[in-house]
Amino acid sequence: MLDAVLAILVLVGAFFTLVGSWGLAKMPDFFMRLHGPTKATTIGVGSVLVASALYFSFNTDGVSLHEVLVTLFLFMTAPVSAHMMAKAALHLRVKQVERTRSAVVESGVVNSYDGTPFRRKE
Amino acid sequence: MLKRLLPHPLLSVLLLLIWLLLNNTVAMGHVVLGAGLALLIPFLTVGFWPERVCVQRPWVLLKFLAVVLWDIVVANLNVAALILGSTRKLQPAFMLLELDIRSPLGVSLLANTISLTPGTVSCEVSADRRQLLIHALHVTDVEASIREMKQRYEQPLIEVLCEC
């Protein structure tokens, strides 16, 4: 029974990680590529970690909880690295797909990159 | 006096908890060692933490955490579906969120949350910390999506974080 649950968790984890990587390869521009690995993988890693916590809690004495820390560090670092990469891409004016809509800026406070992702309100 | 010796009580508790989780034990020796570190580290690094942060209304915080966890699961399913579907139908967009939250910690927590949840990555905070630029993988109604983010994530954060 436990083995079945563990197997399902590991398989689900592997599936979502695969989808995340597939998104990284498939998406047409840099900003869209970012979405695959930052999100589809959190549930992937998450379910592998739940599987690990369950396995070690049942097969050794005492509960195993340091997987919680892996989750915590992942949740703290994944968005930050995504943010830094996106910021760098904005500064380098990395190409976006044509249909990307830009944000409307009224004050022009953020408008520091000659308008690639921004459009001034007329 | 107590404020000087224990500048960040919350950080101390968190450090003790992390130490115990790292060692995967609640043995007395580790509790004592962890408590020592939890007192020493905030004291030595106080220069890096200029803001004193307090959490009020813990139940709002718990509800917020539950909502975020749920949204992460939903986000994963959504993004997985979007990735497996046709890329041509996707409508990516940059969105500008006017921030009502003022504390720097609040802004970074909000940006982190937005990056973790449905098809959105925070790309840039304006220099005056009043606007957040977000890239969305697929969004049909920009206004509605911004309203939802403000109401779902920013509002509870404003309620929870306070200066003290």
Automatic annotation (TrEMBL), chain A:
The chain crosses the membrane at residues 6-25, 37-56, 68-86. GO terms for molecular function: sodium:proton antiporter activity. Signal peptide: none annotated. It comes from Thiothrix caldifontis. Keywords: Membrane, Transmembrane, Transmembrane helix. This is Multisubunit potassium/proton antiporter, PhaG subunit (TC 2.A.63.1.1). It holds the Pfam family PhaG_MnhG_YufB.
UniProtKB/TrEMBL annotation, chain B:
It is found in: Cell membrane. It is a multi-pass membrane protein. The chain crosses the membrane at residues 64-85. Its main location: membrane. GO terms for cellular component: plasma membrane. Keywords: Cell membrane, Membrane, Transmembrane, Transmembrane helix. Pfam families: MNHE (PF01899). It comes from the Bacteria. GO terms for molecular function: monoatomic cation transmembrane transporter activity. Signal peptide: none annotated. Belongs to the CPA3 antiporters (TC 2.A.63) subunit E family. This is Multisubunit potassium/proton antiporter, PhaE subunit (TC 2.A.63.1.1).
